[in-house]
Each structure stands twice: as C-alpha cells, then as structure tokens.
Amino acid sequence: MNDVPLLVYLGIGLFMFATGAVGVVVRRNPVVVFMCIELMLNAVNLTFLAFARYAPSPLVPPGGQQHTWMAGQMAVIFVMAVAAAEVAVGLGIIMAIYRLRNKVDLDEMSTMRG
Amino acid sequence: MLNIPQGIEWLATNQPALLALIRVLLFVLPVLIVVPGCIWWERRLLSWMQDRIGPNRAGTITLKNGKKIGTFGLLQPICDGVKLFFKEDITPGTVDRLLYFIAPALALFPAFAIMGTLPWGPTTGVYGYLTPIWDSEIGILYMLAISSLGVYGVVLSGYASNNKYSLMGGLRGAAQLISYELAMAMSLASVVMVTGSLKMSEIVKAQEAPLWGVAPVIQNWFIFTPFGFISAIIFLICMVAETNRAPFDLPEAENEIIAGYHTEFSSMKFAVFFMGEYAVMFIFGGVFGTIFLGGHNILPIRWDAMAASSPGYGLAHVLRDLNYWLAPLTFLAKCVTGITFYIWLRATLPRLRYDQLMALGWKFLLPAAVANFIVVAIWIIAQKVYGPYGAIAASVMAAGIAYLLYNAVRQVMNQRETSMEKRTIDLVDGTETVPSVRAVELV
Amino acid sequence: MNLSQLPNISPNLIIVGFLGMIAIVTAIGVVAFNNPIRSMLSLVANFFTLAFIYFSMGAEMMGITQIIVYTGAIMVLFLFVIMLLNLSADSVISTKKLDVKPLLAVPVGLALFVGLLSQVMMPFAKVTQPTAPSGWGGPQAIGRTLFTEYVWPFEIISLLLMVGIVGAILLARRRVEE
Q1: Are the beta carbons of C74 and A87 separated by less than 8 Å?
Q2: Do B141 and C68 touch (CB under 8 A)?
Q3: Which of residues 6 through 45 in chain A touch C, CB cutoff 8 A?
Q4: pLDDT (tens digit, 9 = 90+) per residue, C49-101?
Q5: Which of C151, C72, C131 is nearest to A80 (CA)?
Q6: pTM, two decimal places
Q7: Among positive and negative, which fits the CA dihedral B2, B3, B7, B8?
C-alpha cells in the first residue's frame, strides 16, 4: 500500500540540500546563512528517515535484531539536538558581533584574516 | 431505513477519506458555532460579576401589543459579527504587507489545529469512528506542539504592524508563551508517566480505573489524585498564560500598550484574532477536561463496573448507557466550564507585572512541575512495590516534604519582598505621607 | 524503461508529492527572499511540511519532534534574533558592481542536485517497498531504543545541550563595565 518510491524522498532531500548549500555560499546575512545550514541539516534528516524506513542498516547493533530501523531515527534525534545547541551558540555569537560593530555582514567580518 | 451505526461502519471500510472529512467537520463546525456564544457568555457573565447589565438589547422580540420579550441579548454576537464584517478594513501605509495579511491566519491556525487529537467522546462503539480526528500515538505531544505555534501569530502581527506598541506586545506574548510552554509540558509529563501513553484516548481510559487503585466504584480522575491535582493547577495557570488571557494578558494590556499586537488590525482581521482567542480558550477547556476531568464521563462513578456486577438490565445499565450517549454534551459542558473559569479569572484578578509573570513561570511553576514529576515517579514505584495503600502513604510523606519546602521558599520570598518595599519607599521620598485609602461610601 | 516499471500512483504518493513540492518551493524561498524575516517564514513552512512528510512515512515521533524542536523552538529563536537586530533586506546599492554570485548560484545548485541525484538514482531506483514494520516510529519504540542501546549518546547529547545553554548565556550576556 505504501508504495512511495524511495527516490521521491531522496529527491526532495537532495534538492533541499543543494538549495541550502547554494544559500550558504550566496547569502551575506549570517542569520540567513544559519538558516541555510538548518535547511541542509533537515535535508539530511529526511534522507536518514527515508533510508531507515526503506532499507534498514545491515549493521546489527548489539541490542538485537529488531531495532535495526531505529538507527536512522536515532541519528535524526541527535542531529536535532546538535542543531539546537549549535543555533543557541551561533545566534549568541551573531548577537555579540552585532553589539561590537552594530552591523552584521559576512563579507565585512574579515578582521580575523591574517 | 437509515441505520447510522451500520452506515458509519460502511464508510469506515469503503470511504475512509470521507469519514475523515466527517470527523473534522463534526469537531470544527460546532466550535465555529459555539465561539460567538462564548463571546456572548463572556460579556453577560462579566457584566453580571461587575454588577452591570451588559449587552441586553439585541434579540429582543417585540409583540404586536407592544410587549417586549428579552432574550438576554443573545443576538449580540451576530450584531458584532455584522459590524466587524462591514467595517472599513484599514491597512496602515507602513505595514509589511505580506506579514500583515498572513499574521491573523497564523494566529487562527493553532486554535483549530489543536483539536486534531482531542476526543470528544468514548472511543468505543459508534463514537470510536467519529472521534478523535487522529487517534495518534502522540496525542498530547501534538497538542503541545501546535499550541507552541501560537507564538508566530503574536510575534509576526506585532512585527508587521510597524508600531512600537504592537512590537512590544508581540515580544511580550512570545516570551510569555515560551516560558509557560515548559511548565505546561512538565505538568503533562507526570500525567503521561502515570498513563504510560501519549494517546488522549488512553489517558481518558486510565481515568476510568478505580480511584487510587482502591475505591472500586469511583473513577480515577487525575484531578482527584495528589500528583494530578498539582499538575492540574499548574496546567490551569499555564493554559491561561498560553491563551494570553487575564491576568496574563500583558501582550494586549490596554493601559500600557494600547491593544498590543493587534492594535493595527481592523475589521475582519481583528475578528479573526478575536475568534482564534475564543476558539483556543474553548478547546483548552476541553483539553483540561480530557486530561484531568475524566474526558467524556459525566460523574466520576464507574457505571461499567457497577453494571457488570449487577445482573439484568438495571439502573446502573441505564446510567452507563446515558453516560455513553451524552458524551458530546458532557464534553461541551466541560469546555463551557473552562470558559467560565477564564471569565471568572478575568473578573477577579488584576493583571500581573512583567517581572511577576516571569518569576511565576520560571521560579514557581517550572520547579513545582519538575518536583511533581519526581513525586509521580516515586508514586509509581511505590504502587508497584507496596501496592495502592503504600502509594497513598508515600504520597502523604511527599505532601509533608512539599509543605516544608513551601514554607522555606515562602520565608525566602518574604525576605525579598520586604527589601523591595524599602526601595519603593525611597522612591516616594520627599512627598507627604501617603494618605490611607478610605472606603467611599456608596449610597 | 517500460511503463510497468513506473510506480503506480497511490494516494500516499500524491500526498508525498504535494508536500514535497511545498518543501521544494519553500526551500527556494529561504534562499531567494531578500528579507530575512520572509526567508525565516519560508523555512518555518518548510520544516512544518517536512514534519507532515515524516507523518506520512509513519515516523510520528520524529514528525512531532520536528515541529516542537524546529518550528516551536529553533525558528522562534531565529525570529527573536532577527527582530532584535532589526535586520532588513540586504543592501544591494552599496556594492556598485554587478553581483554575479546569485546568477552563478542557480546553475551551480542545479548541477549539484543533478550530479548527486544521478549518482544516487541507480542503486535505489528499484526500492519501492518499505521494510520497516508499522509502528516503527511510535514513541514507545523510540523511547525503548533511546534508553537502552543509545543511552550513552543520549547522555552525551544532554551534556552538549548543557554546554550550549551555558555558552549562549555567556555570549549573550551584557558585560558590565567596571
């Protein structure tokens, strides 16, 4: 019944990833760049879940046979947690930069350049 | 001949999509109809509580002999609706057009999406096909997730208006929603831990068990259990804060920031905000009823068990069937109780200050909810190890500890309050002594 | 490729296709909108759609976590920062010369998409039947796995989040001038 081909999910994920990657390169606003990174992370999440549902990992964890399709979901949980931590710190950094120079533009953040 | 149960079964097997549509309409349409009634009820009840008459003109029937029959202003919401429809829709020139149009919709969306997993009746028999819309494994989480989306409507309407008061209202609303979201989730977590399921229907089913595992004919409504009572109070406070209602209506505090985030909205856009607010109040009354007040059951009495123990078709059977078939009305009654509670609060309590709001949320409700969570864990283990009576003894001990903690906290709070009082006296230094407030005699 | 190899159109495929279209359009919106608050809204719509794609896959817990974590928490944080910094649209006038980056971006992005998809397509073109059982994404299954096999990563993640909170507070704190 659920005969959605895996490629549909992979295509959506891949397109989101490509869009995010382009956005990271093109946009100059650091907040938007952050959003593009989130977009890429979510694309990866979608791919993880698609693979978890369609082709369980051949690597059997020590717990037993029945949880092989859980590996993808666990990866998604950890990605989400890491993304949350990353966003908190990243936006804190952006705030600190803004407070220092009242402007946030990635092209002008070049003082660390040697 | 039309046989409704058979028809529904036929739909469930042959046309599941159509049945799903019926399920949605059966919940959404009554709420849409009830919302104007809620507005009427609020205005009348509030005026009664404040010793006013309130709207009583609309809907008066004049007979031929000049006699007038009052209907308590029942047509007032319709008049309001017509007025809001035909008012000029003013869009200020400086707003962010796209967001200004999207924001009211975003505010309305959670109010209706939140019904998704809420059952308004028993999930057995005919009602099982009709409710809830999505009997999901993640019922409570869905409710929390959707209610957290209410932030967007508030913040974006404040931002799009391009008005500093609106922006302040929006930011206040967002901070408030985020702060009270946590305590609400934690208070529900203890209920979920007892039930062992996130399903709304399972939570209702768990409340049909014997009270405390001891009393055979009384239902175990969570508000009657010690942990559930604390959870219920925390949830109730958070629920009021989530819906931006008095005494937590800082985002639309009229004497501070005009009307807050919906200052710049007029006509139908304002009506949409208004409708969303009342719909979400109504639904939250239902959520409270489902999680703490036994869902669709009228009284906390286990008619099922009584009917099973008594032979033949007696009074217990009649009452059991009545309890089953009156389920939607019971749910409606619980929703109305919730709304009445909101109105009562609004008539009673003054608005909180911003720091009081934050202190209540973060320093009282969240720790209390976490402590309650731990107590519930102990309760469950005690019930498993020592049986129901041991669990009751453990909960008495926990109550003692909670009382001691409360005393300690109150002492600390009292110390802080006195020091703050000293500061305020310094501020009014130089003036005359503040005249004591005298009661004005009303003749 | 004959027609029998094509997947038959099921209701689920229509739903996923529709959600996928929304996801793709909103993903483009994130990059294409000049105003940060609009690209943020676009991203919120994208994450919300993704949550429904997860629901359609049966991964209910992941879908709801997606809504709670991303649309309910992370994007609100973004919204706050954008409003706090009062970020407006990128100023294009300040750089007089023609900006070639956006023009180059479209072919580069498409090339990335097509290149990766062509690599991925071959081995997975035949996979149409899910192997996971029903209920694979329910809260019970996730909870059991998370607290048995993955308990150490889980604890480490909690530590990471703690570090994140402390770091964020340290960075966002207003330094008192002595």
Answers
A1: yes
A2: yes
A3: 6-12, 14-23, 25-29, 31-32, 34-36, 38-39, 42, 45
A4: 999 999 888 888 889 999 988 988 889 888 888 887 776 655 544 444 556 66
A5: C72
A6: 0.83
A7: positive
